[in-house]
Amino acid sequence: MNLIQFMGAVEIGLLYGLVAMGVLLSFRILDFPDLTVDGSFPLGSAVCAILIVSGANPWIATFAAILAGMVAGFITAWISVRWNILHLLASMLTMFALYSINLRVMGRPNIALLGENTIFTPIENLPYPHLYTMSLAMLGVTSIVLVLLYWFLSSEKGLAMRATGANMRMAKAQGVSVNKQILFGLALSNGLVALAGALFAQSQGFADISMGVGTIIMGLAAVIVGEAFFNPKVILTALIACVMGSIFYYLVRAMALNASFLGFQASDLNLVTAILVGIAMITPRLRAKILDFKSSWGNS
Amino acid sequence: MIRLTDLHVTFNRGTAMEKKALRGVTLDIKKGDFLCVIGGNGAGKSTLLNTLCGDDLPEKGTISIDNKDVTSLASWQRASYVARVFQDPMAGTCANLTIEENLALAMSRGKKRTLKRALNKDHRDLFRTQLSRLKLGLEDRLHSPIGLLSGGQRQAVSLIMAVLQPMKIIALDEHTAALDPKTAAFIVELTREIVVENHLTALMVTHSMHQALELGNRTLMLHEGRVVFDVQGKERKGLTVADLLDLFHKASGLELDDDSLLLS
Ligand SMILES: Nc1ncnc2c1ncn2[C@@H]1O[C@H](COP(=O)(O)OP(=O)(O)O)[C@@H](O)[C@H]1O
Ligand SMILES: [Mg+2]
Description:
Chain A is mainly alpha-helical. Chain A has helices at about 5-30, 35-55, 60-80, 85-105, 120-125, 130-155, 155-165, 170-175, 180-205, 215-230, 235-260, 270-300; strands at about 110, 205-210.
C-alpha cells in the first residue's frame, strides 16, 4: 500500500465514520436495526448532486441532503411505531422504495460533479497537496459531528433517547415518550448517513444510483470493529470507537486488496468485509473465553 | 386521590387464549393511604398496577388521579403522577447506563427534557446525599454502570429514583420478591421510610401476608380479577394471617391454604 492509498483509506474511513455514528445511533443506542441507510446514503448523494448541477449553493445542497435523509429515517420509524411493524421490515420497505425515489431525484442513474463548485472546492484550491487537505477536511467534519452528537447524547434529551433503546419499559416509567425518541433518533441517524452520501458525492465527483449498496454493512463493520478493539463503556468512547473502527476497516480493506500476494481483486470486497466483520464479532467472545481460562487457571 | 371505577382488563381478547385479568375492580384510594395488595398467582395484582400506570389498557372502566381522568393517557404521560418499582430489579433501571445517568433520567421525570447537560455538579451532590442514606457505598460509585450492582442495590436505587422528583403515588410490584430475606427486609424498611418522608400514597403488591398486615394502613385481596376483601382501620387492627385466610374463604367460597398463597 502506498501513501496515496493510505491517505485515501483514511479519508474514506473518516467519511464512513459518519455512517458508523448513524448506525451506532440506530443499532446500538436505539436498539433499532435500520436498513434504511442503504437508501439514505445514495439519497444524500442524489439530492446534493442534482442541486449542485442545477446551480445551487453546495452548502445548501448538503443541507438539503441531510433533511432528505432525516425524512427517510422518520418514515421508517413512523411505519414501525405507528403501525407496529417490525423494525427490520419497516426499514426494508423504505430502503426498497428509496431506490425508485433516488432515480427520480437524479433523473438518470449517474451524475458527474467534475468541475462543479462543491463545499470542497476552496480546499482543493489550496496550494497544499490534495492528499492531506481532503483528509484533514474530512477529519474536521467528522470531529464536529462527533462532538455535536456527544453533546446531544449527554443532554437530558439524549439521555432519554439512550434509555429508550436500553430499557423501553423503564424509559416510559420515567416519563419518556419512547415513540418520539425513535422517530427523532432514526431521523438523526439517517440525516448523518445522508450527509455522508452528500460529502461522498462531492469528494469523489459523482453520484451513482448503486452507491448505497452495502452501506449498512460498512456502518456495522465500523461499529463492531470499533467495539472489538476499544470495548467502549461510555458514550464518548463508543462514538470515537466507531469512527476509529471505520478508519481501521478501510485501511485493512485497502491493504487486503492491494497486497498482491493475497491475490484479491475488487470483486472480492464483500468476502473480505464479511471475514473482517466476522473476526470482529468473534473477538469479544474469544476475549471472554481467554479471561475465563486465565481466572480458572489462577484459582486452581 | 386515586379512583378506579369498574376496571375490566382482558388479554388476548377474542382468541382461545383469552384471559380476563381484571373483572370489575372499583377502588377509592385516599391521599396518604398505604395499600398492600395480596392474592394468588395470576389474581391480577400486577395487572391492577400496570393499568393504573398505563401499561395495560382497560377495555372498560375509568381511572382518575386527583380528580383528573387519566384513563386515556399513555404510561409515559402518567409518569408524572406515579413512580414505579418493578419486581424484576433489571426492569426498573438501565443496566448499561451509569448510576448517575439512571438517577439523572429520573430527575427529569415529568419535566420537559432540554438540551442542557443531564449531569452537573449540583445533580451529583444531590445524588451523593441521596445515595449515602442507603449506606451501601454507592455514593462513591456514581460512574459505575448500574448493571454491575446486585438486585437489592438496584431496587434501592430504584426507590431513590422514585422520589427524586416531587411525587404523589408510588406503585411497588413485589419489589422484594427477587431478593434474599435480609436484603428484602432492608428494602421494605427503606420503602416505609421513603413513603412516610414524602407523604406518598402507596400501592404495594406483596406475596407475604404478614407484610400485608404489618405494613401500611390498608390490605386488599384480589382473586381472579376481583377484590375479595379490602380492610382498613379498626377492622384491620389485630387481624392475623389466619383471619385473612378466613376472610378469603368467606368472600370467595374457596379454600386456600396459607402455603399456596405464600409460595405463589
Ligand atoms: N401481557 C399479558 N398477556 C396475556 N396474559 C396476561 C398478560 N399479563 C397477565 N396476563 C394474565 O392475566 C392474569 C393476571 O396476571 P397478573 O396480573 O400478572 O397476576 P399476578 O396477580 O400474579 O400479578 C394471569 O392469568 C396472567 O397469565
Ligand atoms: Mg405479578
